[in-house]
Amino acid sequence: MYYGVSYYPEHKTKAELEHDIRLIKESGINTVRMGEFAWNRFEPNEGEFHFEWLDLVIENLGMDGIKTIICTPTACPPAWLVEKHPDILYMDNRGVRRPFGGRRHYCYNNKSFRKYSALITEKIGEHYGGNPYVAGFQIDNELAQEGTGRCVCPTCSEKFRNWLKNKYKNIENFNRRSGAVFWSQECNDFSQINPPVNTIEVGAQQQIHAFYENPTVRLDFERFSSDSLIEFQNLQTKILKKYTKYPVTTNATGIATNSIDYYKSTKELDCYGFDYYPGLRDTAVDSFPYAFARGIKAGKPFWVMEFMSGGGHRLGGSGRLQPNPGALKQAVIQSFAHGAQMMLHFQFRTFPIGAEQLNYAIVDADGVPRRRYYEMKETAEVLRKIEPIISNSKFVNEVAICLDYDTHWALRIKPVNDSSFYYFDYCRKIYQSLSEVGVNSDVISYDQDFDQYKIMILPTGFVLSLEMREKLKNYVSHGGILLGTFLTSVKNIDNVGYVGSLPSGLSDLFGTTVEEVEPVFENNHNHLKIEEGDCSITTTDEIWSEILSDDSELAGKYLTDYKKDKGVIARNSFGKGMAYYIGTDFCKEDLKTFLLNICKNNGIFIHELSGNDKVEVVRRRYEGKDVYFIFNFNSEETEIHVSGMFIDCLSGKVLKGKHKIDRNGYLIAMKSV
């Protein structure tokens, strides 16, 4: 288990460096992360490499048992490189080149930039690959962050055309599969195809409003750009692995912030790493990103390369709230409970300089240790105590939620009920609903193994391949329980609508067809009745509304308007299993009731510890016993009810009946046999 901070020795005077290193050593942390923005310090002039400035820090910390994560500095090409090769500069969808003076001002496909990136990576790998004080390597920093993941420069435009040619083989095939006949968009040659004018990139400005482009081209450009960034990343991965046996990763940002398919991007990496900045003031820390991270590499531990450290100023303005006392420690332990192997705060000491000046940190710019520092110190001590449990326990979840990047991209390119419906938020709602009724779940990709789960949930499987359809049928026919929702199997992998009745190719699986669809706005909600097992709910539709065929076996019907008595939820026995099709969304409380009923009826383990919606319980299996990590996110002390007998893993006390947990407190309890 690695716990520590990001640190920037290249900014420090000798006195500041000595002061900071002393505090870092005294804090009890065991990891620092360094180097990600220091290209010009590593290589101040072309071909002139310097590592001594970092070597001294790595050795000084390493002698006291503190390992270093070494970063490649390619997020910040230096001025001399830009001056010599101005064509490396990133070009956005408006045709604007990003100049030197910020960060991430490079084109990831540019041959010159790739050559220089490979060289600096080679030198770093050669120098640090066997260093005993190094724990691993991070490639670049937040690939595609701040609107730098959809370059349309001449290099990228030409490479995109070649990517299309390689995929479709000939222009006639492209024209047919993309529906280019629409609006007379057929081409005679791939040279006539350009990258899309508009983009779904976060924070981007559209070049031409009300310009509606071919959906196939737009989805393919998302895939191409993601593939290009992965290619650039793996150029460095391959080089580093020549020189080191230490883990190699990079730091992703959120689940889809930068539109990189993280399921694909981590295949060549040793683990999934990402940055996470949740609020820590009177709020629950959303664990959905952790479940996602855990599923990226089939349950392997993940690394959190940057994590919240405090409040005050921030890069983008407006500022952040300070964490509640205890919230920092609680959040770190929560991350490890959910499968982290590393947690690094950004950053150790506040910057007085640069674009991130005055940003939140563990220690303020004056270098005086205060409550955040001492809380980090306490956290390091707790982690040492619980490391045997974390490192030797496993997850035993029986429910999984399936995510898909093609679906995310397609629904951003042509939104459904924008801005009420966001695909990943809907997946998160399902995950949180399960958690709040006592069911821990995994989050996995379409490519992963379904058979280990009793229940699979497919939220809005909008883009569905023929292979995925068969995989779902095979899962259910062998005894699985599948919950599919509205907007399933609407489009094929070319982002073209299916012409068969929806859910296309799956009507036999779900025992129903969709007869009518519409978005749900403020003025057209419809009441509906759900009856499934012991569950009886009267609720209203949300987001999207589908009417199901009259010959369906129904678990839910509409109650009002012309939809009265029409189906909205269908269930169907298929082989040895059961499939449900849910034709709308409903409020979270009713969703929780419905999901709890499904889980109970199918023998899903539901934990024995009850509290309220701001108490999260994570169950793992340790030495044949259930161990529970319980987090109180309420703004006041809360009481949980313990069914059976438990042992507090930190104090050794026996727990049974009622037990109180402090505000921003936690409890690690093991079931007593």
UniProtKB/TrEMBL annotation:
CDD domains: A4_beta-galactosidase_middle_domain. GO terms for biological process: galactose metabolic process. Residues 614-668 form the Beta-galactosidase C-terminal domain. Substrate binds at R103, N141. Residues 7-385 form the Glycoside hydrolase family 42 N-terminal domain. The keyword Zinc applies. Zn(2+) binds at C107, C151, C153, C156. The keyword Hydrolase applies. It catalyses: Hydrolysis of terminal non-reducing beta-D-galactose residues in beta-D-galactosides. Residues 398-603 form the Beta-galactosidase trimerisation domain. Coiled coil: none annotated. GO terms for cellular component: beta-galactosidase complex. It holds the Pfam family Glyco_hydro_42M. Keywords: Glycosidase, Hydrolase, Metal-binding, Zinc. The active site is at E142, E306. Belongs to the glycosyl hydrolase 42 family. This is Beta-galactosidase. It comes from Blautia liquoris.
